[in-house]
Design goal:
By secondary structure, the chain is an alpha+beta fold. Helices cover about 25% and strands about 35% of the residues. It contains three helices and 24 strands. The strands form six sheets. Strands 3, 4, 5, 7 and 8 form a five-stranded antiparallel sheet that branches. A five-stranded mixed sheet has the order 13-14-10-9-17, with no helix packed on it. Strands 12-11-15-16 form a four-stranded antiparallel sheet, with no helix packed on it. A hairpin with a 6-residue loop joins strand 11 and strand 12. The longest helix is centred in the last third of the chain and has 55 residues. The termini are far apart.
């Protein structure tokens, strides 16, 4: 039997036939979102053939750029549980142009659950190399009572872990968990994340993340400002969780106009700003970013709280000053003019006009004559009135007396 197989292999090699394909292709889950594909070698292959295997992944009929060549008879891949995944493999004789690769052998993994119920827009951030926070939204066809749960695993954990610190705000789910490695290294294993519900109707979501692309430093703290001569010195605290020389910083400052703010980049936790205006107020803020030689992240930290140094007059003060100064000058001018006029009168009294004196004299005489004439006319009238009164008295008394005398007679 062995001799017949050897003879068949020699004949195949001589005639340059197509290689036989691998057999017994199968898969198994070794962790969440992680598959192990295995297969058996082809039979009746010549010993002169340097046998290798080429494997490929197809997602929803679209080949992925993840083809591999290996002598091993297994391959570990991520799981795309939200889409149909096909894995295929074939055998090849390396450095042998006389033979052709075998045909593809494949198997598929179909997703579970109802389409449109899987979580969407999964986003994770590794905060300050201390903890990871992930957020996602529910699928458009998921029911309102869907309770998503996040699980994670990476090479180094014996078993996957569940994220218990979950929340939901305005329709967005979130969960945060401690995430750090025992030692700082230039390479970190990928983290596998699974978001699913206990119901079989909800389709699970699998994702594989490179943690170095998710790094976000903490906000710089304890920003201090000091001034000496014509320089401002700026300093802030460094993060204890990052390796040395793995962060650079951006410093933004302005002296009142944010549109003219200036930005500088520094690699240490302090800097100096020369040639400042001593009569201006300067405002500073700082943020950090990982260096590309340490991490692949493009995430900046949040800006620090703004700190200021120096004094600058408020625009309201200038406005009041502009209004007050002209007003004070105008009032002072009026007071000064009035004072000077009175002083001039006291020092140089006005000389009387002779014409006014003469006119005034003749005017007084005319007034006196008119007054005297008026008084004479009044006196004459009074005298005539009195005379009439006396005469009437005389006429009235005469008959009485006559009658009296007549009676006496």
């Amino acid at each position: 039997m062995a001799g017949a197989a050897l003879l068949l292999a020699l004949c195949w090699a001589a005639e340059g036939k197509v290689l036989p394909p691998p057999s017994n292709l199968d898969y198994s889950f070794i962790q969440i979102c992680t598959l192990n594909w295995t297969w058996s070698p082809p039979e009746n292959v010549s010993r002169s053939c340097d046998l290798e295997y080429s494997s490929d992944i197809v997602i929803d009929e679209v080949p992925q750029d993840k083809r591999e060549w290996s002598k091993s008879r297994f391959r570990v891949t991520d799981t795309f549980s939200n889409e149909e995944m096909r894995f295929r493999v074939r055998s090849e004789c390396k450095y042998d142009n006389a033979s052709e690769p075998s045909r593809w052998v494949e198997t598929s993994l179909r997703p579970k659950g109802i389409p449109g119920t899987a979580a969407v827009d999964l986003s994770c951030i590794w905060h300050n190399l201390e903890y990871m926070a992930c957020t996602w939204r529910p699928g458009e066809k998921a029911s309102s009572d869907t309770n998503y749960t996040l699980f994670y695993w990476f090479n180094g954990l014996k078993n996957h872990k569940k994220c218990n610190n979950s929340s939901m705000h305005q329709g967005v789910f979130g969960c945060a968990f401690n995430f750090s490695f025992p030692e700082v290294t230039s390479t970190y294993p990928a983290i596998r994340i699974l978001v699913k519900d206990d119901s079989e109707e909800i389709r699970p979501l699998c994702a594989s993340k490179n943690p170095t692309t998710l790094v976000k430093p903490a906000t710089p703290r304890q920003v201090t400002l000091s001034k000496s001569n014509d320089e401002i010195h700026v300093g802030w605290s460094e993060s204890d969780t990052f390796p040395e020389n793995c962060l650079f910083y951006e410093v933004v400052y302005h002296n009142g106009d944010k549109d003219t703010a200036q930005k500088i980049k520094v690699e240490s936790n302090y800097t100096s700003i020369p040639s400042i205006d001593p009569n201006s107020k300067y405002v500073f803020k700082v943020r950090a970013k990982p260096k590309p030689e340490c991490y692949s992240s493009k995430l900046y930290s949040d800006w620090s709280e703004e700190k200021s140094i120096g004094e600058k007059m408020d625009s309201t003060f200038y406005f009041v000053l502009i209004i007050t100064i002209p007003l004070i000058v105008a009032i002072s001018t009026i007071i000064l003019l009035v004072y000077l006029k009175r002083l001039k009168i006291l020092i140089l009294p006005p000389v009387p006009d002779p014409r006014e004196i003469v006119k005034r004299m003749f005017g007084e005489q005319n007034e006196d004559s008119q007054s005297c004439a008026k008084d004479d006319s009044v006196s004459a009238y009074d005298r005539s009135v009195k005379e009439e009164e006396i005469h009437s008295l005389v006429i009235t008394e005469t008959p009485e007396c006559a009658n009296a005398e007549k009676q006496n007679c």
